[in-house]
Amino acid sequence: xxxxxxxxxxxxxxxxxxxxxxxxxxxxxxxxxxxxxxxxxxxxxxxxxxxxxxxxxxxxxxxxxxxxxxxxxxxxxxxxxxxxxxxxxxxxxxxxxxxxxxxxxxxxxxxxxxxxxxxxxxxxxxxxxxxxxxxxxxxxxxxxxxxxxxxxxxxxxxxxxxxxxxxxxxxxxxxxxxxxxxxxxxxxxxxxxxxxxxxxxxxxxxxxxxxxxxxxxxxxxxxxxxxxxxxxx
Length: 233
Description:
Elements: E1 11-13, H1 25-39, H2 43-52, H3 54-58, H4 65-76, H5 82-100, H6 107-115, E2 120-124, H7 129-133, E3 145-148, H8 149-152, H9 159-169, E4 177-180, H10 186-192, E5 196-199, E6 219-220, H11 226-230
Parallel strand pairs: 1-2, 1-4, 2-3, 4-5, 5-6
């Protein structure tokens, strides 16, 4: 087993399934049903069309949260008032904040890494909820750089997704760590640019994993506190 570079020049993190839960099915369904009811449309029809546009949203092609909801409504041939759209958008953002709030267990470790002078970056395949919550949630305050698929229009394992933040931080890939749960074939992409890969999976986050990596990480940890232990191991 290869040894992690110590100390790392930077640590790059995945978001969903790693720092926060990966779309718990019950909470996701409840939020999406609520949005459909706010909009006054068929729950099943809205949920199906919302799901079908997942990759479009992740690549940023539908725009922000409100625009993404409008894209589904356009497919359904439905128009709503600005006030109704605002309520539906806020419900979707509330669901996003619910997930980001689940970072309570990972935040102390992230802050400890920052206190040691290690820059942190977020490399996430995500929709614009992350962008729209970025300035107002403590989880994102710890990051010095970000590579978000909805902003860059490309998904992992595209090597450029990792190189984007490596350039921003002015660090060398073979002296950095990448921490993820294995979705989006992220370990293959991280290794392609020379990053040391570490697998950490949020409990219960295997229910929704897109394009899971078929290769293992260089190292797997069971608890987030093990990241700090790696610095002195």
